[in-house]
Amino acid sequence: MSLLMILLTIFLPPVAVALKEGIGVQFLINLVLTLIGWLPGVIHAFWVATRGSASTV
């Protein structure tokens, strides 16, 4: 994971997820989690950024 991706994951979790997965289900989940609370959005963004290849849902 690059330094830019780590910083985006911490400060703008939905943007990091959108760059990794595109605008889709994972982005919407992360957006809702970030709106509920910043920490759940960050945790989800790190999970999405560190798992293997992009999944299709």
TrEMBL record:
Pfam families per record: Pmp3 (PF01679)
A cellular component annotation (GO) from this entry: membrane
Coiled coil regions in record: none
Swiss-Prot/TrEMBL keywords: Membrane, Transmembrane, Transmembrane helix
Residues spanning the membrane: 28-49
Compartmental location: Membrane
Ligase recorded as keyword: no
Similarity field: Belongs to the UPF0057 (PMP3) family.
Listed PANTHER family: HYDROPHOBIC PROTEIN RCI2 LOW TEMPERATURE AND SALT RESPONSIVE PROTEIN LTI6 -RELATED, UPF0057 MEMBRANE PROTEIN ZK632.10-RELATED
Identification of the protein by name: YqaE/Pmp3 family membrane protein
